[in-house]
């Protein structure tokens, strides 16, 4: 039994030695007094309201028109994007808050998206108002728009 007690004593001593050299736990706390006093305000930027869209034979132009939403945050502008049906960005523009229409040349089927924004175009934005510009046929049929809502 003595060899077993010796092994147990050595194991216990080595555990104590390891425990004595283990790093003490580190306690840390951070406070940010500015964040503790900050206030948060939620807001909603309402979607523009689709009013009309129409195609013009000359130039294969399609014009999408909207009105400003009557509720929500004050709009500071609009972000208009034109994409292919596959989603590739063709063009985009930041428009003043007084803008109520955008025209595109429908050389191919294009998706037009208009979002209102408050603050900046990278800040709060509304859900997109979407429409599809469909090209005319060989200059004989005017282009048209679909699903402008």
Fold and architecture overview:
- This protein is of the alpha+beta class.
- It folds into 2 domains: 2-37, no CATH class; 49-146, Immunoglobulin-like.
- Helices cover 17% and strands 38% of the residues.
- It contains 2 helices and 9 strands.
- It has helices at residues 2-21, 33-37, and strands spanning 49-56, 61-67, 77-84, 89-96, 101-105, 110-118, 124-125, 129-134, 144-146.
- The strands form 2 sheets. Strands 3, 4, 6, 7, 8 and 9 form a 6-stranded antiparallel β-sheet that branches. A 3-stranded antiparallel β-sheet has the order 1-2-5, with no helix packed on it.
- A hairpin with a 4-residue loop joins strand 3 (77-84) and strand 4.
- The radius of gyration is 32 Å and the shape is elongated.
Provide a concise account of the structure shown:
With 149 residues, the protein is α+β, with helices and mostly antiparallel strands.
Number of helices: 2
CATH superfamily of the largest domain: Immunoglobulins
CATH architecture field of the largest domain: Sandwich
Report the major sheet. 6 strands, antiparallel
Q: Please report the distance between the alpha carbons of the first and last residues.
A: 89 Å
CATH C-level label of the largest domain = Mainly Beta
- CATH topology of the largest domain, anyone? Immunoglobulin-like
H and E order: HHEEEEEEEEE
Relative helix content: 10-25%
The number of distinct β-strands equals 9
Strand content: 35-45%
Global outline: elongated
Low-confidence stretches: 6-13, 15-20
Radius of gyration: 32 Å
Tally of separate domains: 2
Structural class: alpha+beta
């Amino acid at each position: 039994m003595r060899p077993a007690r010796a092994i147990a004593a050595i194991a216990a001593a080595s555990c104590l030695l390891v425990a004595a050299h283990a790093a003490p736990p580190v306690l840390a706390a951070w406070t940010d007094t500015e964040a503790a006093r900050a206030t948060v305000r939620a807001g909603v930027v309402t979607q523009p309201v689709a009013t009309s869209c129409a195609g013009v034979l000359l130039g294969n132009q399609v014009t999408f028109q909207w009105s400003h939403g009557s509720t929500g945050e004050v709009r500071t502008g609009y972000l208009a994007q034109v994409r292919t049906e596959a989603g590739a960005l063709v063009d985009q523009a930041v428009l003043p808050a007084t803008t109520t229409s955008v025209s595109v040349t429908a050389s191919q089927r294009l998706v037009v998206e208009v979002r209102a924004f408050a603050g900046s175009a990278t800040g709060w934005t509304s859900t997109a108002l979407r429409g599809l510009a469909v090209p005319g046929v060989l200059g004989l049929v005017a282009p048209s728009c679909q699903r402008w809502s």
